[in-house]
């Protein structure tokens, strides 16, 4: 498996002969130049996970890529998303040898009396490759068999403690820090150090910020 982190929650995943881009949002520079995609996946409707201004350019450069999104996000995208199709909880799609499965259903609460939003977590797997889990904005799901976890570092809907508890619950061989767009560099170092220091001894923290395409093995 090869991963490229475009900042915040945007990951390019290459495995099983497929190229999949997850959550091309407003805090993720450069994703609109990616080509050769099989699909674009959007976990939910918030702007840090889908940038409707740059999405058309991405799709124009990938005319054969399927655009799949959490169901209420499909409605929100409108014409900016082109022919977006819903990816519902329990759905599974195949791209090359890569299977994509949607789990979860709800965004984490920010306030108990606040609005609820849809959110799908994404489990990506291919024979002979690590299994990757991208949770979007939710720690509600802890799927088994995860080798590589895209780990949200910081968000209005969680805390440092919540991040570490989620990492411990999933227990991956590798954790890749994401969802870091609201952090200044020094603060990001603190969060990365926190998950390194308090996460499971069996988990390796692989920081892909600025690294470019990186081969990942579990």
Features:
single chain; 218 residues; 7-stranded mixed β-sheet; alpha/beta; Metallo-beta-lactamase, Chain A
Describe the protein's architecture and organization.
The protein has 218 residues and is of the alpha/beta class. It has one domain: 4-Layer Sandwich (Metallo-beta-lactamase, Chain A). It is 17% helix and 29% strand. The strands form 2 sheets. A 7-stranded mixed beta sheet has the order 6-5-4-3-2-1-14. Strand 2 and strand 3 (18-22) form a beta hairpin. The radius of gyration is 16 Å and the shape is globular. It starts with a strand and ends with a strand. 46% of the residues are buried. The mean pLDDT is 95.
**Main β-sheet: number of strands, strand sense, barrel status?**
7 strands, mixed
Spatial order of the strands forming the largest sheet: 6-5-4-3-2-1-14
The CATH class turns out to be Alpha Beta
Tally of structural domains:
1
| CATH fold annotation | Metallo-beta-lactamase, Chain A
- pLDDT < 50 runs, ≥5 residues: none
At CATH level 2, the architecture is 4-Layer Sandwich
Strand content: 25-35%
Q: What's the end-to-end separation, in Å?
A: 9 Å
Q: Which superfamily, in CATH terms, is the homologous superfamily?
A: Ribonuclease Z/Hydroxyacylglutathione hydrolase-like
Rg is: 16 Å
| Average pLDDT reading | 95
Number of helices: 4
Helix content: 10-25%
Count of beta strands: 14
Give the ordered list of helices and strands.
EEEEHEHEEEEEEHEHEE
**Overall 3D form:** globular
Structural class: alpha/beta
């Amino acid at each position: 498996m090869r991963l490229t982190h475009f900042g915040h929650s945007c990951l390019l995943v290459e495995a099983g002969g497929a190229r999949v881009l997850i959550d091309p949002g407003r805090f993720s520079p450069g994703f609109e130049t990616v080509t050769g995609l099989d699909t674009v996946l959007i976990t939910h409707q918030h702007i840090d996970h889908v940038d409707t201004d740059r999405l058309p350019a991405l799709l124009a450069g990938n005319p054969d890529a399927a655009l799949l999104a959490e169901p209420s996000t499909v409605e929100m995208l409108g014409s900016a998303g082109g022919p977006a199709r819903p990816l519902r909880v329990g759905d599974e799609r195949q791209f090359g040898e890569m299977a994509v499965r949607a789990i979860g259903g709800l965004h984490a609460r920010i306030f108990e009396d606040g609005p609820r939003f849809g959110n799908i977590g994404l489990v990506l797997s291919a024979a002979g490759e690590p299994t990757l889990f991208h949770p979007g904005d939710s720690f509600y799901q802890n799927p088994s068999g995860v080798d590589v976890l895209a780990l949200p570092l910081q968000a209005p809907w969680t805390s440092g403690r919540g991040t570490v508890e989620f990492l411990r619950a999933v227990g991956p061989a590798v954790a890749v820090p994401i969802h870091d767009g609201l952090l200044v560099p020094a603060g990001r170092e603190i969060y990365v150090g926190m998950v390194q220091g308090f996460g499971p001894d069996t988990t390796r923290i692989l920081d892909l910020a600025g690294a470019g395409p990186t081969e990942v093995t579990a």
